[in-house]
Amino acid sequence: MATAQESKGRTPIFIGRWTPKILFSLKERPHRHGELRRHLGSVSQRMLTRTLRNLESTGLVARRITTSKAITVEYSLTQLGKSIITPLRGMCRWARKYSRQVSADVHFPGAYQ
């Protein structure tokens, strides 16, 4: 069991609106920031950057900078990030099945694949 002191150094995993969508998008293959934004649709630049930073700090997403002719940044799932896909998919199935009985707004579009 973690003590209060041990948990202070850890970053909490926050499952917000865009977290599952980003994780499921990166499941297929790594994406550059612009690609990911186009793929997700209506996410703002600020929210995408904020969510990617959070996922990177929790160890679920890796950020790779390449320097060929131009500097590019690519995001991909880490091994830890890949391991959360199956439980997250199960949560999405649960949300779809019990959405009428849950009082909170539970909605994961596109995550039921």
Task: Give a nutshell description of this structure.
The chain contains five helices and three strands, in the order H-H-E-H-H-E-E-H.
Q: Which CATH architecture? A: Orthogonal Bundle
Q: What would the average pLDDT be, to the nearest integer?
A: 82
In what order do the strands lie side by side in the largest sheet? 1-3-2
Q: What is the CATH level 1 assignment? A: Mainly Alpha
**CATH homologous superfamily descriptor:** Winged helix-like DNA-binding domain superfamily/Winged helix DNA-binding domain
Gyration radius (Cα, Å) is 16 Å
Beta strand count: 3
Task: State the low-pLDDT regions, or none.
Answer: 1-7
CATH topology: Arc Repressor Mutant, subunit A
- The percent of residues in helical segments reads 40-55%
Give the overall shape.
globular
Say what oligomer this is.
single chain
% residues in beta strands? 5-15%
Task: Report the total helices.
Answer: 5
What can be said about the biggest beta sheet?
3 strands, antiparallel
Helix/strand order, N-terminal first: HHEHHEEH
Which structural class do you get from the secondary structure elements? Answer: alpha+beta
**Could you give the distance between the termini?**
35 Å
- Number of structural domains: 1
